[in-house]
Design goal:
The complex is a heterodimer. Chain A has helices spanning 8-18, 33-44, 58-70, 81-86, 88-96, 121-124, 139-156, 181-187, 211-243, 269-281, 299-306, 326-335, 358-366, and strands at 2-7, 23-26, 51-54, 75-79, 102-107, 132-135, 160-165, 173-178, 250-253, 260-264, 286-291, 293-295, 311-316, 343-348, 376-378. Chain A is of the alpha/beta class. Chain A folds into 2 domains: 2-243, Thiamin diphosphate (ThDP)-binding fold, Pyr/PP domains (Rossmann fold); 250-378, Rossmann fold. In chain A, helix 1 crosses helix 2 (33-44), helix 3 (58-70) runs parallel beside helix 5 (88-96) and helix 10 (269-281) packs across helix 13 (358-366). Chain A is globular and about 70 Å long. The longest helix of chain B is centred in the N-terminal third of the chain and has 14 residues, at 14-27. The relative contact order of chain B is 0.18. Classes of the chains: A alpha/beta, B alpha/beta. Chain A binds chain B through residues 5, 30, 116, 167-169, 171-175, 267-268, 270-271, 273-274, 355-358, and chain B through 18-19, 22-23, 26, 31-36, 38, 40, 57-63, 65. Strand 8 of chain A pairs antiparallel with strand 2 of chain B, so a sheet runs across the interface.
Amino acid sequence: MVKDMVLGSEAVALGVKLARPKVISAYPITPQTHIIERLSEMVDNGELDASFIRVESELSAISAAMGASQAGVRAFTATSSHGLALMHEVLHWIVGARLPVVLVNANRAIGSPWNIWTDQTDSMSQRDLGWLQVYCETAQEALDTVLQAFYVAEKVLLPIMVMIDGFILSHTLEEVVIPTQEQADEFLPPYEPEYFLDINNPLSFGNAAKGDVFYNLRKDIQRSMEASFGVINEAHNRFDDIFGRRYDLIDTYFIDDAEIVFVIAGALTGTVRVAVDKLRNMGVKAGLLKIRYFRPFPSDLVRSYLTDKKHVVVLNRSLSFGSAGQITQEIKNALYFEKDKPFIYDYVLSLGGKEVFVEDIVKLALNIDSLETSKILWRE
Amino acid sequence: MIEIRFHGRGGQGAVIASKILAYALFLDGYHTQAFPTYGAERRGAPVAAYVRVDNSFINVRSPVINPDYVIVMSGKLADTVDVSSGIKENGLILINSELDVDHYTFEERCRVVCFDVNRIALKYGLGTKIMPIINVPILGVFAKLTGLVSIDALKKATPKFVPVKAERNIEALEEAYNLA
């Protein structure tokens, strides 16, 4: 293990390299570009024994990753924003074909108007596909989560989307402990799928399926999602044993006695941590619940932490227009059957990279009594 | 926590300078973080880059609005961009300028130092007369003025981010450090 300073995007590339994928297909888009730049260098200079497929669009990038995965090898791609949107059709197909593709999305707003900065609209727009979704707070978490993602995807036979925030994580230079290849190999065994395209053993993949069969295949996807909790926990335990870093489906900070809990996903969690420290110093009982896995959504765990709280402020960086912030929907859903529920505030914290300062979060807590629960809350 | 803000124009190397400084501070044993504010990257547009230094992991990810130190890559920028904005009382603004410090007046109570880094950059063949590349030597001036970062760590960090003309940059860095 060696401690170094790398960009969030480089941390992803290092995690991918340690996972030894056989095929990487990608198309550059800000703010994801550094990831595949680094990977293409690694392939070029022999550090990574993989095929790097340059394609003419994101639709081709994800199609090539799907083809590679179907041929039985570990496949990776990365994108952002409009690129993820362009992949949409094939993202569905990969789930139905039960292929463990790993995709890193550098979260970026989608136009119009044109905007390269971060929010979570791009990935939240893909939440219903059947891809597992993980949101990362730090470069370390990004590296570690990429390794875990291959492990989980290949056991569950569902694809995983790992999110890093554009710029505020992808372009931030920060300290990362880089695992050794031996550790990574101990954690992540070679990918040996049971079914794959093989000229010596012809099988049909993705053939037509009428309602009864189709219905059951979709039920299997949901069952696998439900079963993935166990696999994710197993991956986290194994990871802790080998690397000495502990992860969970969610993370909490000062939550036990908190009266006001902020819920957030992604890199701005760090800024909220600092706000919680500040509020605690002022005598305000604030706490934090970080959503790491958004799909599958860890409702039981969330419920166990939030049921007895007084105020829950959900800090969304995307929303379903005409409804609510996507994270708020999940929190409300998780708490619906509880007798004593907290006040849940549906707050749109930032879109398109609108800057968020510690003071913005502190003020929210100090003005908690003036917040309404009956509507979406916006910044001034 | 100590916070540093760089002001430059696209192509002047402010972002690279922030990375070298953060890396050097990391080598000196601190926890650090460096990141830029980007428009779309393009030559000539004003850019800001930030470095934070602390004794524990840095969680906050917002832009630096109350810097302890400000580094301005070219004097002309200080005429058009509000470089002193939010600077802490008795903070330091270091400006790459051949002009006298009296040329620059700021409302905030802070220390201003002008240093002609262009001259050193040109002496070591860094950039052109129209656009000298001063992002490494200006860190030498910063190190001497503040004592925050060691010159040895800066020398080690430089080639990691400036693979081209690394030796000349390190020589310029040392000269700037010695003259400051």
